[in-house]
Design goal:
7 strands; 54% helix; two-stranded antiparallel sheet; 14% strand; 249 residues; alpha/beta
Amino acid sequence: MFLLKKLLAALILPPAGPLLLALCGLWLTRAKSWRWQRGGRWLATLSLLGLLLLSLPFVGNALMAPLEPHPPIAPEQLRRVQAIVILGGGSYHAAPEYGGDTVGYTTLERLRYGARLARQSGLPLLVSGGAPFGGRAEAESMKEALEQDFGVKVRWAETASRDTAENASLSAPLLKAAGVTRIALVSHGWHLPRAIALFEKQGLQVIPAPMAFSTGSPSMVENLLPSALVRSRWALNEYLGRLYNRLKE
């Protein structure tokens, strides 16, 4: 099921989804009926235009905005929790400069903020992330980066999860065994609403600790350059994840 979800998402989300629709449209232009030919041209044109629009930063930010309802965590909120949990966001495989697998840039953003909160509060850290496609478990790379690069100790490393649901279900027993039921959850703002719900289902009280908000450039020109397709892809992937969870329930 995990691999099937990943495959379907890869085929639906940009760039593959719009490109496949465009190819379908081009195939329809070979039909004998002029209506099918015209429909195919429209489908190809709209698909490619949609791909271009999704690559614009202001479109990506607009898609992200509804996914980021939580403000940054306040000091008084941080004082009410017992531990900080940082969710993995991807690995950088076979990194030659590090001699093997390490954290990807999305995970690194989360680690930087989690380390900052840990230093401010003195709270213990849990990192969560496995190796769904092989290689080194993400949590092991996260632990190494936090301790060697940020100088922050990690108390728990959950290394078997493949997605956010498993981040929650496999991290909760580690925390509860230590008497921890109130956590600050660190992840990107667009990811947290779905992640919070999954951790709360495991009986944990969760304070959101969002980071890396989708803010625009002060330059209008930069906001209009087609350079941010990944942002739109993340947003659409999150909407798909929410839909999947609702259908599953």
